[in-house]
């Protein structure tokens, strides 16, 4: 089991990442109803018609189903191999719960009309499902090195800080999904200004778009503060938090610029998908810091004489 666990962990994370990209592709191409209002069938058939929208939507469903099977297998293997480990159990349940929840929400969005606010939750729940698998993979890959990385407890103030930042980051992600589902992605047709102004008229789609920009800019500032603190306090004793803080800051900078590319390239498919890819990885890294902030150094048992 141990021989296959690490490759399976990488595969599970990769396939969940593909699910996130496929979901973004469905939204970008307006293929959510490519199979009509049928689920799990596609326009009443198991094999969809050869139209672009139906193929994109049906492929997304197929990938999600395969991902569910792989993640279930991965979770069960982890549960058995690390029997009695509360962290493994919680992460496995967390990932599977949100995979099922986002699948149900995706199916309901096809069968019954949904508001933009509810549709935005689909991406949010998918992101939480990916994060659960991502964190469980991190546990499997880093378990042998954990003692060397965690040499001191993270201060309580930092724990509260990073958990607050994570909740805020999830709000920014949800707002970004809401921008897409309300058709507000081009409400500000230029970047970094909005309609040629530093502060545009804050109403309608322009207000929604500009609120997301402000949210992303504040997240950039928060991750810069986080990086500065990590460099000062974690470089020697918490290599996990130190390294993750650097990666998170680089990713949030890339995320801000990728958002600009979405506008400047007028919703080009590659720019839009890149924006979704970066935020998926960024949120996973921030959640990793949350989880690691709770860990303490392992107590070494004295040797028997």
UniProtKB/TrEMBL annotation:
Catalytic reaction(s) noted: Fe(II)-heme o + 2 A + H2O = Fe(II)-heme a + 2 AH2
Source organism per UniProt: Brevibacillus nitrificans
Gene Ontology terms: cellular component: plasma membrane
Superkingdom of source: Bacteria
Protein name per its UniProtKB record: Heme A synthase
Compartment(s): Cell membrane; Membrane
Lipid bilayer topology: Multi-pass membrane protein
Subunit structure: Interacts with CtaB.
Membrane-spanning segments: 58-79, 91-112, 118-141, 161-179, 210-229, 241-267, 273-291
EC number(s) per entry: 1.17.99.9
Role, per record: Catalyzes the conversion of heme O to heme A by two successive hydroxylations of the methyl group at C8. The first hydroxylation forms heme I, the second hydroxylation results in an unstable dihydroxymethyl group, which spontaneously dehydrates, resulting in the formyl group of heme A.
Major place of residence: membrane
The UniProt record lists the keyword Cell membrane: yes
Classification lineage: Bacteria, Bacillati, Bacillota, Bacilli, Bacillales
GO biological process: heme A biosynthetic process
């Amino acid at each position: 089991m141990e021989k296959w666990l690490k490759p399976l962990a990488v595969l599970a994370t990769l396939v969940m990442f593909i699910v996130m990209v496929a979901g973004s592709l469905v939204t970008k191409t307006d293929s959510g109803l490519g199979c009509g209002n049928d689920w799990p069938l596609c326009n009443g058939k198991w094999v969809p018609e050869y139209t672009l929208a139906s193929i994109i939507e049906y492929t997304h469903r197929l990938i999600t189903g395969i991902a569910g099977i792989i993640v279930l297998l991965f979770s069960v293997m982890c549960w058995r191999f690390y029997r009695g480990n509360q962290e493994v159990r919680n992460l496995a349940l967390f990932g599977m719960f949100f995979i099922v929840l986002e699948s149900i929400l995706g199916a309901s969005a096809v069968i019954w009309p949904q508001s933009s606010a509810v549709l935005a939750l689909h991406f949010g729940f998918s992101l939480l499902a990916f994060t659960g698998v991502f964190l469980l993979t991190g546990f499997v890959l880093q378990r042998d090195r954990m003692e060397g990385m965690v040499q001191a407890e993270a201060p309580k103030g930092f724990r509260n800080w990073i958990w607050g930042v994570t909740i805020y980051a999830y709000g920014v992600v949800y707002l970004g999904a809401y921008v897409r589902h309300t058709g507000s992605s081009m409400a500000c047709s230029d970047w970094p200004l909005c309609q040629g102004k530093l502060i545009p008229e804050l109403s309608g789609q322009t207000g929604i778009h500009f609120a997301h920009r402000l949210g992303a800019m504040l997240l950039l500032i928060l991750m810069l503060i986080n990086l500065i603190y990590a460099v000062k306090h974690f470089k020697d004793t918490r290599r996990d938090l130190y390294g993750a803080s650097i990666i998170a800051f680089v990713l949030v900078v890339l995320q801000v610029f990728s958002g600009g590319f979405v506008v400047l390239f007028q919703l080009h498919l590659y720019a839009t998908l890149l924006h979704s890819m970066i935020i998926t990885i960024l949120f996973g890294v921030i959640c990793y810091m949350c989880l690691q902030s709770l860990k303490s150094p392992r107590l070494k048992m004295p040797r028997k004489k």
